[in-house]
Amino acid sequence: MTAQLINGKDLSQQIRKNIKEKASQLTEKYRQPCLAVILVGEDPASQVYVRNKVKSCEDCGIKSILQRLPADSTEKEVIDLINALNQDKEVDGILVQLPLPKHISEQKIIETIDVAKDVDGFHLHNVGALSCGLPCLKPCTPHGVIKMLESANIDLEGKLALVLGRSNIVGKPMAQLLLEKNATVILAHSKTRNLQKLTLQADVIIAAVGRPLFLKAEMVKPGAVVIDVGINRNSEGKLCGDVDFENVKETAGFITPVPGGVGPMTITMLLENTLIAAENSFQKKENQ
Question: Which pathway, metabolic or otherwise, does it act in (predicted)?
């Protein structure tokens, strides 16, 4: 039996309708919610991502400000720009597109962003709040994955969930969000031994290793839920995920495609975080 598809594109469009409605209400009552995006350098993939984010903002009634800096900008110049946006009362969210040029410390840049405007959810304060189960702006990709699982009515309580990959952007926060849903979580990585033994036990597998077609059908338990976070190019230059989709779909119970799976949800969660940041800001002003 072929796995049921969890379509991130359709789900993201549904969520964006609500975001557009809420953005319109906030614009009417206060002002238009606003996201500032900083792009340093000319990385082609980053330029595509930023273009998509800016367009998605426009489509949902969120104002976007794109700040471009040359690749040879100093760390201080980027920090000065972030500090100016931190002070700008018309800006609700700040996003610095990663990766940054090698001479700039990503961690230092992330820590400069005002916690309340950290719509990527990467600031140490938000990371700490997430690990303690406190309210915070959640990292977009893992949050999007949880929304997809909820949309398919997958109950995570007591399930064994295996996260492949331990990055700060996906793997670690993904594990935290799964724990919040009362799943039993294993975080696997490149040094994990007997990986197939673990994958065959898992009820849910989140693949985020950045290796094309890494997860094979023989590594998946029949009926398991498989979420593919990877975006790679195969030997023919075609877009593919970390999961061998064509073969795994014959074993899994649920599966996400690439493209059209987790990708659209990541930007949608960014828009949602921008709205939350705007609402928090307006609420704070009202309470002053």
Answer: One-carbon metabolism; tetrahydrofolate interconversion
Host domain of residue 207: 140-263
* Known catalytic membership, residue 25: no
Contact 35, 119 (CB under 8 A): yes
**Is 32 annotated in the active site?**
no
Claim to verify: residue 67 and residue 153 sit in the same structural domain: no
Rounded alpha-carbon distances, angstroms, from residue 256 to 96, 152, 170: 28, 11, 16
Query: What are the average pLDDT values for consecutive 10-residue runs of the chain, which has 288 residues?
Result: 93 98 97 98 92 96 98 98 98 97 97 98 97 96 98 98 97 97 96 97 97 96 98 86 97 96 96 98 88
* 120 tagged catalytic: yes
Q: Model's pTM, two decimal places? A: 0.95
Is the same domain home to 121 and 231?
A: no
Residue 165 is assigned to a ligand binding site: yes
